[in-house]
Design a protein that fits this description.
The protein is mainly beta. It is built from 1 helix and 11 strands; from the N terminus they run βββββββββαββ. The radius of gyration is 13 Å and the shape is globular.
Length: 126
């Protein structure tokens, strides 16, 4: 049974930081790109960041570039999103997503995804 579970969300003041984690089980983790998406109230889900299965490549939405850092530990089947300088507009439910095996972050950014997590709420107060 495949499980993709996010954790680390919460309430933080503007300018603060949070670190999200995504733990995956029941799937081959190390040969998939992994991504983060988010959905704010009343808005469509949007791509946030992706890290390639080799860990050599990462891509970010323009809105988070320079503030968020994505990483992964294949030995632990875990991915992270370190978020700095948070803004109220970062408030959303953040979802972890697994791309197809041997696919790319380009595909992930187009929502070509194999598995999703249930999401974790991030709220940034002004």
């Amino acid at each position: 049974q495949v499980q993709v579970v996010e954790s680390g969300g919460g309430l933080v003041q503007a300018g603060g930081s949070l670190r999200l984690s995504c733990a995956a089980s029941g799937l081959t983790f190390s040969n998939r790109p992994m991504g983060w998406f988010r959905q704010a109230p009343g808005k469509e889900r949007e791509f946030v960041a992706c890290v390639s299965w080799s860990t050599r490549d990462a891509s970010y939405a323009n809105s988070v570039k320079g503030r968020f850092t994505i990483s992964r530990e294949n030995a632990k089947n875990t991915m992270y999103l370190q978020m700095y300088s948070l803004k109220p507009e970062d408030t959303a439910v953040y979802y972890c997503a697994a791309g197809y095996q041997l696919s790319t972050c380009a595909a992930v950014s187009l929502s070509r995804l194999d598995y999703w997590g249930q999401g974790t709420q991030v709220t940034v107060s002004s």
